[in-house]
Each structure stands twice: as structure tokens, then as C-alpha cells.
Amino acid sequence: MNAGRIFEAVHTALLTNLLLAIACAPLVLVVLTTDPSRTWPLLVLFAPLAGPALVAVFTVLKSYPSPVVKVFWTAWRTSARPALATGTVATVALLVLGVDARWAWGRPVGAVVLPMIVVAMTLLVITTLLVLVVLAERPEARLRDAARAALYLGVRRWYLSLFSLFALVLFEALLAARPAIAIGVVASPLLYVVWANSRFTLTPIGRTP
């Protein structure tokens, strides 16, 4: 890879990070300026915005080296409704499971319930990620079909799903510790790992790595 291609890749990554931050501006603002442990209701409120933003990022990665800004906002507009719906359902479900986990913690029933909640949360996150990748690859896909395929393949190829989940957890850890670095520098590389791995996970339904 020559210097020109390296510069182009770095420019694309940084610009994509900026567009991601703009698309998730309310969420980013809460993370950067408040204590998330106290303002978590705002995080829950704005979390669905990440849906169309992630679809847009995945579309930019798929379309590289096409013009980043045009591809990003076109994908955002195209996927806004289904991606917001996906993000909202996932956020509400995670909130409910989190409340259940908090209730079960320290109780005798927790020994049985908590592992089930952890598994449910894991499946929910993996399925949501795969659905967003499907929306980036095939914007015309129906959410019900995408969710069914994502859940099936996410479980069938669990080792790939766990790798994507690890990359996402790493990003979340960096976001909590160094939000500016996570959003401004690390987001695109880690999301590339998630996208490429998820795309490979979806190959049985016609995706190509």
C-alpha cells in the first residue's frame, strides 16, 4: 500500500468518525459532558440514533472508496426508519432485561435467572448488529426476515458472533474511559472489524466477504 492509499484510508476513517459523531450528536453530547451513571435515562432515550448511524458507517465501509459524505447521508436517509425501529426495539429490550437483572441480583432466583438474562442480552446485541449489517447490504430487506436470519446465523456461527461482540465491548470500554479518542480515532477501525466479521457471518444468505 503506497502513501497515497494510506492517506486516503486514514482520511476516510477520520471523516467517517466525524459523521458518526454528528449523526449521534445528542448521544455523544451526553457521553462527553455528563456522568453516564447518573444520566443513563438520556442514554436510553438517544441510543436508537446509533441504528441508522451504524448502517451509514457500514455502507461507507462497503462502498469504499466512494465519496464518504454522500454515501453516509444517503444510507442514513434510506435506512432511517428500519434502523431506528431496530435500535428502539433493542434499546427497550435491553432496558427491560437490565431491570430484571437488577431485581434478580442477590436473590436466590438470581442463580437461575441471571445466566438466562446474560444469554438473552448477548443474543439481542448480536442479532441487532447483524440486522444493521443486512440493512447496509440490502436496504430493501424486510426487518422480520433480516432479524430471523440474523438470529439463526448469529447462533450458528457463534464464534464469529463472539468476535464481533468482543470488538464492540472493546469500543464501549474505550468510550467509557476515553470518549474523545474512542469516537474520534478508534470508532472506524473497530466498526470495520465488526462489519467485516458480521458480513462473513451472513454469507449463507448471499453476502460476500
UniProtKB/TrEMBL annotation:
The chain crosses the membrane at residues 12-34, 40-61, 82-105, 111-136, 157-175, 181-202. This is Putative membrane protein YesL. It comes from Actinoplanes italicus. Keywords: Membrane, Transmembrane, Transmembrane helix. The lineage of its organism: Bacteria, Bacillati, Actinomycetota, Actinomycetes, Micromonosporales. The keyword Cell membrane does not apply.
